[in-house]
Amino acid sequence: MAVDAVALQTLIEEKLKPFVKKIDEEAYYAEDFLLELGKAGFFASTQKDEQTTLLDELTIVQETAKVCMTTAFCLWCHLAALTYLRKTNNMQLRENILPLLERGEVLGATGLSNPMKFYAGLEKLHLSAERVDGGYVVNGVLPAVSNLAANHWFGAIAHNGEQEVMVFVNTDNENITLKEKIHFLGVNGSATYTCKFDNVFVADNYIIAQDASTFVDTIRPIFVLYQIPLGFGVVDSAIEGIEKVKAKQNGCNEYLQVQADELTENLHSLQETLQALIQSGEVNLQAICQLRLQVVYNTLAAVQANMLHNGSAGYIAGSTPSRKLREAYFFANLTPTVRQLEKMTATSKAR
User: Fold this and answer.
1) CB distance 200 to 139 below 8 Å
2) Is 301 exposed, middle or buried (0-12, 13-18, 19+ CB in 10 A)?
3) 103 CB burial (10 A radius; 0-12, 13-18, 19+)
């Protein structure tokens, strides 16, 4: 069953578009829009196979990113949390918490920026977990977790002796302290916080995986896959911006080196590659990372072209082209960052 395009666009028009400038300029968090997506059934997976679920949710991310990539990024965070619970062997989480996330009763976040860098050999793991009766006690600080507010759930990975454990925690836990992070160049409305764990007890019922390393291998391809339409949405919006100013200054934009038709052709090619990857039934991490890297560079090229085509109008603070430019630079630095992706793909080619 395909996404109800009309219902989705109605939600975007009513619950997101009116708040885009507030999101960008005042760090407004579009929580209501995300909750409404769930209440409207856009996260439901019980009546779908995995392939259909992926294709539908990728569409939702792309359509959201056309209007506001900050909110689409928050949406990606929620989809990451859904992925953890869809893949966990912990039936308590799958039966009791997953339905709440899918129905839009609560929202989720990823919490795996630091662990993903840890498993790529780029950072040390910031959390530690001590086994106690009935669960684990977790300590440490996660520098940045996005899509958080009251009563939000997120995943986290902590060292436990010789291996790592993955837990699912709620922001309402009194031993978790949140400190908001703003003053970013872009995506201030992403509800990003530093999360301090001070003897946080996590019961066994809320353990996503006792062996986090193996579990991450399972979820990482989908984790990265859901990011790709963030770029698609921004590129689509940039193409629209270029088309709008086609006749500017007696049509002199036609002499610029990058044009909308080239960007459109590249976008369609990348979208077809993504669809083929999913329909092949083998969500290969290396292929996904290579595609993700291509999408980053295409997104950067598209927003730069949009700025050039718009000229001084794009250079005005608060303009749509300048917002798209900042969104694209955030996309390039979203874990896995462009430099991490370059390292991963270069290492793969050397083998």
Assistant:
1) yes
2) middle
3) middle
Residues of the chain with pLDDT under 70: 1, 348-351
Closest CA to 178 of 192, 188, 166: 192
State phi, psi for 155 to the nearest 5 degrees.
Answer: -85, 155
CA–CA distances in Å: residue 157 to residues 118, 162, 171, 202: 10, 13, 15, 12
Encoded tokens for 42: 């856009």
Other CB atoms within a 10 A radius of the CB of residue 292 amount to 23
CB-CB neighbours of 91 under 10 Å: 9
Q: What is the pLDDT of residues 265-291, one digit of tens each?
A: 999 999 999 999 998 887 789 999 999
pLDDT value of residue 351: 55
Task: Write out the DSSP string of 208-225.
Answer: EESSHHHHHHHHHHHHHH
- Please name the residues in contact with 191: beta carbons below 8 A apart, sequence gap of 6 or more: 29, 31, 74, 146, 147, 148, 149, 180
Q: Beta-carbon neighbour count of residue 216 at 10 Å?
A: 19
Q: How is residue 179 written in tokens?
A: 């400190």
Q: Burial level of 46, CB count in 10 A (0-12/13-18/19+)?
A: exposed
- At residue 30, the pLDDT reads 98
The structure tokens 């009513």 sit at 14
CB 311 within 8 A of CB 231: no
What is the CA angle 127-97-59, rounded to 5? 90
